[in-house]
Write a structure and sequence with these properties.
- The protein has a seven-stranded mixed sheet with strand order 2-10-9-8-7-3-4, sandwiched between helices. A five-stranded mixed sheet has the order 1-13-14-12-11. A two-stranded antiparallel ribbon has the order 5-6.
- The protein folds into two domains: 137 residues, Aspartate Aminotransferase, domain 1; 224 residues, Aspartate Aminotransferase, domain 2 (3-Layer(aba) Sandwich).
- The chain is globular.
- The chain has 379 residues and is α/β, with parallel strands linked by helices.
- Helices cover 36% and strands 17% of the residues.
Length: 379
């Protein structure tokens, strides 16, 4: 029995996912996991709690160097410690970057579908923006150079990108990233790349930070990373921005410590523990997620006419429900005891997103409820 099979009740723990619905509903919507945080993180936080004084905190002295080594080991990308800017949240950074990197009369590009905070960061920036529809190639959602060319304007200054893609699950290849990078370099467009799911890439794929492709693209890129997702520590986690360009780096940290608070003590403690001692746990997690993905794939194949997009990373799967005889597939599944993320969050009402980072027994029951829901439309 895997450690990830352990059933842990999250009701009445102020969980966004589990407290929204009653106990008759299986909630597989918000992107956090139902697994225990690695013991190394728990031990480090317990040790710090024993000190019993929790004052204002600066980053540990060598944490940037440790992250630099980690990124090289994981992605073969050589960066300098001074390129790293700590932030308590990638989400708040997205909103800040959209404003700090552009002028009020400039234009932004983002994606459709995409993680809703990326789309909202563009929308809330009070800048003109375009959401580039992603192309579907063999059930993979991909941003193409043709799409960028079509929606680019003369004053386009920023691309809000996402790799691995949320909700589609695509892990961009070297060639695909090269096309995007070349387009942005040639058109003086800064790339802000949300890469928070980069540590959960499945077998047969490799995450490539887009900024690692060349010095030119590194010089006009902002890479957003965190261990929050992979080690299930979003409540106590840390994030960081990687930016080679000193002028851009100055802009993106302008609001940290003011509108965006500085990270606090347990953010640093949890991340440092995961960096030092979490690698075996991470590998075991990815294998468990791959097994859950296979279970999902088997069930979706039997649930015609649903179609599952290729899931190359993370624990979020994107499901096309456009051929179902219903205008609201999320409500259909909710009526049968399963809460999924409605596609409306990503501006695609006829899709749903499912979170498979849950014990196999819970996922199996959830998929049985999906079957039951589909059967009511075909009966």
């Amino acid at each position: 029995m895997s450690k990830f099979d352990k059933l842990i009740s999250r009701f009445h723990t102020d969980s966004v996912r589990w407290d929204k619905h009653n106990k008759d509903i299986i909630p597989l919507w918000v992107a956090d996991m139902d697994f225990e945080t690695p013991q190394c993180v728990i031990d480090a936080m317990t040790k710090r709690l024993d000190h019993k004084v929790f004052g204002y905190t600066h980053a540990p002295d060598h944490l940037k160097e440790e992250i630099t080594r980690y990124i090289h080991d994981q992605f073969n990308w050589s960066i300098e410690p001074e390129w790293i800017v700590f932030t308590p949240s990638l989400v708040s950074s997205l909103y800040s970057i959209a404003q700090q990197i552009t002028q009020s009369d400039e234009h932004l590009l983002t994606l459709k579908p995409v993680y809703h905070h990326i789309l909202q960061a563009a929308s809330f920036s009070n800048r003109d923006f375009s959401a580039v529809p992603l192309e579907t190639d063999n059930r993979r959602l991909i941003l193409s150079e043709d799409g960028l060319k079509h929606y680019q304007q003369k004053n386009t200054r920023l691309l809000l990108f996402c790799n691995p893609h949320n909700p589609g699950g695509s892990v961009y290849s070297h060639a695909e990233l090269n096309d995007i990078a070349a387009f942005c370099v040639n058109n003086d467009i800064v790339i802000c790349s949300d890469e928070i799911h980069c540590n959960m890439v499945h077998a047969g794929h490799q995450h490539i930070p887009i900024a690692s492709l060349s010095e030119d693209i590194a010089d006009q890129s902002i890479t957003l990373m965190s261990l929050n997702k992979v080690f299930n520590i979003p409540g106590v986690g840390l994030a960081w921005m990687i930016c080679k360009n000193k002028d851009i780096r100055k802009k993106i940290q302008a609001q940290i410590g003011t509108l965006i608070p500085d990270p606090q003590i347990f953010s640093y403690i949890s991340t440092q523990a995961a960096l030092h001692h979490g690698e075996l746990w991470r590998r075991e997690l990815v294998q468990y997620l791959e097994n859950n993905k296979k279970l999902l794939q088997t069930h979706i194949t039997e649930m015609q006419p649903l179609e599952l997009y290729t899931m190359e990373a993370s624990y979020l799967a994107w499901i096309d429900c456009s051929q179902l005889r219903t205008k609201d597939p999320a409500q259909l599944f909710l009526d049968h005891g399963l809460a999924l993320q409605p596609g409306s969050m990503f501006k695609q009402d006829d899709h749903v997103r499912i979170n498979i980072a849950t014990p196999k027994s819970i996922l199996s029951e959830a998929l049985n409820r999906m079957h039951a829901a589909i059967d009511t439309l075909q009966g």
